[in-house]
Specification:
The chain is an alpha+beta fold and 280 residues long. It contains ten helices and seven strands.
């Protein structure tokens, strides 16, 4: 019985330690509306605060203070030295933070959501807000999260300016190329002179095994679109498909047609791809 008691106590102790453990496995972009902690400094203190999105500043960290964890797993709060808000704009990067377990909110004298957060949520269901959040998350590479916002916006007004292009970007990012083509074709019909929209359509056609259609899109861009910002990128993307299919003759013909090998940005890559194909 004594041994059984010791085993149970050991299990409970391990469970408590696991509950208190801070897992530094979340990016800033995965921590919206969460209390987070940065990794401990040399003294064992964890700076912590709340991450939210300001519609003007983007990802923002509201600093709340620091804490240490004692041997029993209790969080010992040290409040910030200065009164007033201390907010820092965050750039999406590879820094990993820990989501603070709710079981420690009382020790840190915090609630699940700060009182002031409501002022940033007043317009959260408007199409302007949904579109902007989707646009931001696409820019940060969090396309699945972006798509959630953008599809909600589409339900309100599918004709909202820029929405179809952002949806197309999200679908391309997530490998949902048929959906991208569907929405981007409509966007191109409505604004055939927009170079970025046509670029996204061409990209989705290439990756949906519609190379001939992508070439047609490329040719139309050269004839009809005044903005040539993406012409070399479009040419290189088509060349890349010839390379992946190991079609040497078509690869060489495309270089001759587009002169993509003369481009400073793509030229070195083109030469390397050509060597690879010639040596196979």
């Amino acid at each position: 019985m004594k041994i059984f008691y010791l085993i149970i106590m050991s299990f409970i102790s391990c469970f408590c330690i696991a509950q208190n453990k801070l897992d530094f496995n979340s990016k800033f972009t995965q921590s919206e509306d969460k209390w987070i902690a940065f990794d401990a400094d040399s003294t064992g203190s964890y700076n912590f605060g709340f991450i939210y999105i300001d519609s003007q500043a983007g990802l923002t960290f509201d600093y709340a203070g620091s804490f240490k964890i004692n041997k029993e797993g209790k969080y010992i709060l040290k409040k910030k030295e200065l009164d007033g808000a201390m907010k820092y704009r965050l750039q999406p990067n590879n820094v990993l933070v820990a989501i603070i377990p709710e079981s420690h909110y009382i020790e840190l004298e915090i609630s699940k959501f700060p009182e002031w957060l409501k002022f940033y949520k007043e317009d959260e269901n408007t199409i302007e807000r949904l579109y902007k959040w989707g646009y931001m998350y696409n820019g940060w590479g969090e396309c699945a999260k972006a798509l959630d916002f953008l599809e909600k916006a589409k339900m309100i007004n599918p004709n909202f300016k820029g929405l179809r292009v952002e949806l197309g970007y999200s679908y391309n990012c997530l490998g949902q190329y048929e959906k991208a083509i569907e929405v981007l074709k409509v966007a191109v019909e409505l604004d055939p002179n927009d170079a970025y929209t046509s670029k996204e359509l061409l990209y989705s056609q290439i990756h949906n095994n519609q190379l001939n259609q992508a070439i047609d899109t490329y040719d139309r861009i050269l004839k009809e679109v005044s903005d040539n910002s993406y012409n070399t990128e479009n040419a290189f993307n088509i060349l890349g498909e010839y390379y992946r299919q190991k079609k040497l003759d078509a690869f060489i013909d495309w270089i001759n047609k587009t002169q993509i090998d003369k481009d400073k940005r793509f030229g070195p890559s083109v030469e390397q791809m050509k060597k690879d194909l010639l040596n196979k």
